[in-house]
Design brief:
globular, 5-stranded mixed β-sheet, 5% strand
Length: 568
């Protein structure tokens, strides 16, 4: 390739813009429905690829996403860099000390959770290769080893997100799950590194042995001497370079160097970046804000392009085999859930908790998809099995949190933002008194509902007369429980001057949240009040929110505060 032509450069930039924009849009829509963003990002690629857009408008599809030539090479290079950086961030999530702290429980859950699906998957692929999706010409041993690994891998980022959503991340149960997932991911990617070294008929046994040996040495050195060296270098980088650019540059340089090394010895570049991420993330000198910046930059820019590009490579409808999907899902889920549940029981967990650990560990997410795509690109598997692996990854990611919630009989955390809408928000709220404010907000809250505004006002005003509902720092939460109401109604008035709500600290209320909840849902009301109080505990946030110009600015301020480490 001598270089991209003017037309090819135009196509590349346009294609990247379309992929990123559509992936981010559908990813945001997915999160609004409390689903992983990766669901929307992959769906964007499916819609743009041969499954939908290519089938309806093949000429336009080939114009935007040519299937051959320099464009395809350039896009492949960009997506390879994207997924390499994504694995760097994924590696930073691995906390080696967590494994050591959890000790026996993490080892039992991780090892049994790894061995059960490995053994079942290998047996299935070795004795029934056609049922497992093997194709003529595939090396039986390498395919069986890959299939077993695919059944045993899990997705640490999805697992952590699920635990955070369920308020279990910092519990003993959550820490055992995270430690076990770290152990499984480390072992799984090492096995897959061996598989990649074995692919290719022109490579002799001695060469495979050398590659495996070099890989082992690399892992050991990076997780011992490399960790130590990175921990010593980070303070120097932070002290003598501009923040955060110096640390970000150091992280990306190290990740790309390790990626280049593993690619050189015959292992995919992503493995080197992943191991460097593990070593970097373990340093006590890596600031949380720097980690977040790197994570968001890659996860919101590079990762969506990669996951959307998956849909350009495969026609998901043409290669969807319901029998193979069901078999893959059954073997993978039975092996992982059964193994982890048994390991948890051996470690002393109760039956219900053990089953919840198994279900949590069954989330496959991005790691399963990456594993399958690399095998597809290497010619180890065909599109039919790849589609089945993607289906398993998406299904387990979608359902693990719901199943855990049902098993542990948990209630989902209540957040006031779920009930806040633009139509029930008044910016630059002018009310002459506390009573006037409650009257106006009662009318606003009842818009589009069956609740009588006068009835709502009377209930809220009676409650307000009993005791002021004002919180500290200029926030007030007048509220009442209403008969016949099915779900909460929340209205907000934003006052720049403030309204007297007889607060304990003497400050006028500048953010007034009026909350109506079902009469028999006292706990729901208390959780909404607690969530608002915790979110606006910072007086600086109240000050900034009281000076917004519209609802969008208000929502952006609240969400950015949550994203920066405020109340979630």
């Amino acid at each position: 390739m001598n270089g991209l032509s003017h037309q090819e450069l135009t196509q590349l930039f346009f294609a990247l813009a379309i992929l990123l924009g559509s992936a981010r849009l559908l990813g945001e829509i997915a999160t609004r429905f409390r689903q992983p963003a990766i669901i929307g990002e992959i769906m964007a690629g499916i819609l743009l690829g041969p499954t939908v857009f290519g089938a309806i408008f093949p000429d336009w599809s080939n114009l935007i996403f040519p299937s051959e030539g320099n464009f395809r090479v350039a896009l492949h290079g960009f997506t390879t860099i994207s997924i390499t950086l994504f694995l760097l961030v994924a590696g930073m999530e691995v906390d080696l000390s967590t494994i050591f702290r959890q000790g026996r429980a993490a080892f039992n859950v991780g090892m049994t959770g790894m061995l059960f699906p490995l053994i079942i998957g290998f047996f299935m692929a070795w004795y029934f290769p056609r049922l497992a999706g093997s194709h003529p010409g595939a090396d039986p041993f390498i395919f069986a080893l890959f299939f077993a690994t695919a059944m045993a891998i899990c997705a640490l980022p999805v697992i952590i997100k699920t635990l955070i959503d369920l308020n279990l991340f910092r519990t003993d149960l959550g820490m055992v799950i995270v430690a076990s997932a770290i152990l499984v991911d480390l072992l799984g990617w090492n096995i897959f590194a061996v598989i990649l070294a074995m692919i290719g008929g022109d490579i002799g046994v001695s060469r495979v042995g050398v590659t495996i040996g070099l890989t082992f040495i690399f892992v050991v050195v990076m997780l011992t001497l490399g960790r130590w060296l990175i921990d010593r270098l980070l303070p120097w980088v932070q002290a003598y370079t501009r923040w955060p650019g110096g640390v970000l540059g150091f992280a990306l340089t190290g990740g790309l160097l390790c990626a280049a090394y593993t690619e050189f010895i015959g292992i995919h570049a992503i493995f080197g970046a992943f191991i460097f991420g593990v070593a970097l993330g373990d340093s006590k000198h890596l600031r949380a804000h720097t980690r977040t910046l790197l994570d968001q930059f890659i996860s919101f820019i590079f990762a969506p392009i990669f996951f959307a590009s998956i849909g350009l490579q495969v026609n998901f409808l043409a290669n969807f085999d319901i029998g193979l999907v069901a078999m893959v899902l059954l073997i993978g889920s039975a092996g992982m859930i059964g193994g982890c549940t048994w390991g948890a029981r051996r470690s002393g967990f109760k039956t219900r908790e053990s089953l919840a650990i198994g279900v949590a560990m069954n989330a496959r997410g991005a790691m399963e998809i990456i594993l399958g795509l690399l095998a597809l690109q290497a010619g180890l598997i065909r599109e039919r099995l790849f589609v089945a692996l993607v289906a398993m990854a998406l299904f387990t990611s979608l359902t693990s949190g719901t199943f855990m919630q049902a098993i542990l009989r948990l209630r989902r955390p209540i957040r006031f933002l779920e009930y806040l809408t633009a139509r029930r928000c008044i910016i630059d709220f002018h009310a002459t008194s506390r009573r006037h404010a409650i009257e106006q907000l009662s009318q606003l809250a009842c818009l589009g509902s069956d609740v009588d505004p006068a009835l709502a006002f009377n209930a809220v005003w009676r409650r307000e007369q009993t005791m002021s509902t004002s919180l500290n720092h200029g926030v007030s939460v007048p509220h009442a429980r209403i008969n016949g109401l099915k779900s909460p109604l929340v209205a907000i008035g934003v006052s720049r001057e403030g309204i007297d709500f007889d607060s304990m600290d003497g400050l006028p209320a500048r953010l007034i949240f009026l909350i109506l909840t079902p009469h028999d849902a006292q706990r729901l009301q208390l959780e909404l009040l607690a969530n608002i109080g915790a979110t606006f505990a910072n007086p600086a946030l109240v000050e900034r929110c009281s000076n917004v110009n519209n609802y969008t600015e208000l929502l952006a301020l609240i969400k950015s505060h949550i994203g920066e480490g405020g109340h979630v």
